[in-house]
Design brief:
four-stranded mixed beta sheet, two-stranded antiparallel sheet, 4 helices
Length: about 130
């Protein structure tokens, strides 16, 4: 019985860790996408915490995706930055060029933009098609 509880607990943890976070499209998302994409071009947005240990892997995956798409969509990184400049805060520089394609970066003070879009974690990705949906 004890072994069964352990196996069930590990199974529940594995299921939880593989599950995607909550997804919703806030009302202001369409306005944000329209303001940051070129007309007729899709937009890919990634919320990123520069000190998250998984950021490097997230950027590598994003770079691969951009390289395979040959720059057919605009790419924007929302880079977290504390609201106040904190002593000792050092943001790891984020690549300005991924997959051979230039990307834009916005310093997201306090993570407000990412939160307003519904980002739950660093590496959360949003995509708006050519119509902004």
């Amino acid at each position: 019985m004890w072994l069964g509880c352990i196996v069930a607990g590990f199974g529940a943890l594995q299921r939880y860790s593989a599950k995607a976070g909550p997804v919703h499209a806030p009302a202001n998302a369409a306005q944000f996408f329209a303001a940051h994409r070129h007309p007729g071009k899709p937009l890919l947005v990634m919320a990123l915490h520069p000190n998250c240990p998984c950021s490097e892997a997230s950027l590598a995956e994003l770079g691969d995706l951009i390289a395979r798409s040959h720059g057919t969509c605009d790419t924007l990184l929302l880079q977290y930055h504390p609201e106040q400049d904190l002593p000792g805060w050092q943001a790891t520089p984020v690549a300005q060029d991924l997959g051979g394609v230039p990307v834009r970066t916005i310093l997201d003070r306090g993570g407000k933009l990412a939160a307003a879009l519904g980002a739950a974690t660093s590496g959360h990705v949003f995509f708006a098609d050519t119509q902004g949906a």
